Every structure is written in C-alpha cells, then in structure tokens.
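Q: I have two molecules that I believe assemble together. Could you output structure tokens for the complex as a whole instead of separate predictions?
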Amino acid sequence: MTTERRTPGRRPGGPDTRGEIVQAARESFADKGFAATSMRAVARRAGVDAALVHHYFDSKNELFIEALALPVDPRRIAAQILDGPDDEIGRRIATAFLGVWESPDGQQRMKALFRSALSSDEVARMMREGITELIIQPVSAMLDVPDAKLRVGMVATQLVGTAVVRYLVGLEPVASVDAETLIDRLAPVLQQHLTG
Amino acid sequence: MTTERRTPGRRPGGPDTRGEIVQAARESFADKGFAATSMRAVARRAGVDAALVHHYFDSKNELFIEALALPVDPRRIAAQILDGPDDEIGRRIATAFLGVWESPDGQQRMKALFRSALSSDEVARMMREGITELIIQPVSAMLDVPDAKLRVGMVATQLVGTAVVRYLVGLEPVASVDAETLIDRLAPVLQQHLTG
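A: Yes, here they are, computed for all two components at once.
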C-alpha cells in the first residue's frame, strides 16, 4: 500500500478505484470472513473514504457478489425459494438452481467458482461463509424445526453434487438429461431433506 | 519408448516394471477409456509380455484401482450394495460410501482423486468411465426399471455432493455432524432416487 492510499477521505475516485475496492473486499472476505467484513473495513483496506465504497456498492452483499463474480444475487435466490407454499419448496429450489446453471453465462461463472473453491482454501472460505450467511441462514430460519441448518446443508450436498456431476465431470446420463427431468428428480429429494 | 521396450515378450520384469505397467494403464484409460483398454493393450504400451501384466495384476479392474490409487475395489462396493433387500439399498449405499470416506486413508486418497478429477480432464474421464462400468452398470442392471441408469446417476450426484461439502469444502453443519446422523439423512433420499 502506498502512502497516498493510506489517506482516508482524500482520494478521489480514479479509474481503478472500483477495482481496488473489490480487491480489498475479496481480501477481507478471505482473511476475516463474510460476517466480520464491513463496508468501512473494506474502505480502510482500499485506502478510500467509506462514502466512495457506498458510491459504488449499495451493500456488503453487492461487494460479495462482485468479489466472487457471482452470476446472481444469492439473496434474490433465497427470496425466490421462500416465496410459496412449504410443500413445494423442493421444486422451487431445484428450479432456481438449474435456472442459474443452465444459462451459458451462469454456467461459465459457476464452473469457474466451483473450480476455484475446490483448489483454493481462500475461495472455499469465502463461498462457505457467504452461502451460510446469505442462503443457509435465511432459508433455515424459515423452517420451523430444530435441525433446520442440517436440513439446508443436506440440500446443499444434493445441489453441489448435481453441479459437479452434470457440469464439471459430465457423468452420463445426468450430464445430458433435460433440465425438466432433472428438476422432477431433484424436487422430491430436496423436499425430503427439508421437510421429510 | 526405447527400442528395448518395444521388444515384446523378451523383457524380464525389472524393479520398475510394475510401475511402468501402471503408467501404461493410466495412459490407456485416459486415451481410450476404460472399456477399450485391455490387459494386452496395456502390455503392448508398456513394451512387456502380456503374461507379465497378468503376473502383477489379476484383471483390468485391478489395474484401474492401481492407476487411480483407489482406496477400495469398486466391484466390492457394488457387491456390498447389491447384497440385501431392495428397500434398504439406500442405507447400504450410504453406509458403504461413508465407510470409505470416514477412514483416514480412504479420505486422503478420495480427496486427492476428487481434486484431480476436478482439475484434469483426463482423470475426470478415467473416473467417469470406471465408475460407469464398475458401479453404475452393475447396480442399474439390478434395478428393474427403464430409467435405472438415471436413477443410479442421481445417487451419484447425492454422494459426490456429500463428499465435496463435507470433506473438501467443509460447509457446516454437514462437515462435523457424526457419520450415523449423515447415514440417516442420506438413506431415504438415496432410496427415493433409486426406487421412489
């Protein structure tokens, strides 16, 4: 870090400022985790005023999406999953998940993210903490059972495995079955994990 | 390859011969796939007599186990899964799978294998073809339904995801829940995938 970057509140937004903020956020998520990272701490690490961070990003959530190059906002996915009757939550989860992975841009970004998480402990930690905070906690808070977090975690196992087998390893016939069939297969087991 | 190694049937088993056979098998599995690899072709590729390959390895299956450094014989796992009543097959699969992953040596080897498969297309192909031939085909042949292979493939998604979430990424609470609880969670969904 240069002396100039250490001067808070003085630095105007240059052409690279946004990128530097994202890089500082990435480092903070990796070092301290999602929960312990604040917009203020990211500003301090990037050597800029907190107002500048807020100028580029509405929330820590947006910084997280950018830091991991996520194709979607995890909170939007969580909201989509929670919006509807409890006995169809398995189908909504399967539909939302495949919706992301079946789009070319979504698939490319998610594959890159999975490969990074599986080869880098830092990316794995960022993903783990972000998913816990932004998806597992809101979804499990909605389930009125004592073991809600384990149930949501089991849903994660089924979804992660589907992504690895279908998109990363390409094991047949899962790799080429159509998305509708896959949703039909996933819906009852996701439902079983959550409410069975 | 040296001229000496090209002379079939003349080369005595030296100290590295076994390792060279395994390397030739690995190349053949990666180049041509599991089904198209024969003991004879491996011998030819290694520049040794076929009898020497048979001296070290009883079958192509054993060569495959060695080439991928598998902690167990996939056919033994398949036999274990098939041995019992149909309505408890989900539990037998969960038990067999966690049996491998919960042993320290098994876990270490499987983690290495998963990481290789996710970063190397060659290892991914070897795993994909070997698993198809040695586990998916025998298990799906036992199921008396038209979509047996897709059902067994869906079981693979649940198992692969469990391994990635619990052992590779360490997402809580799945990462630290005890194995018995995990088997109780997996058994009904594996059963649903196969016979639901």
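A: One point stands out. Confidence is low (pLDDT under 50) at residues 1-10 of chain B.
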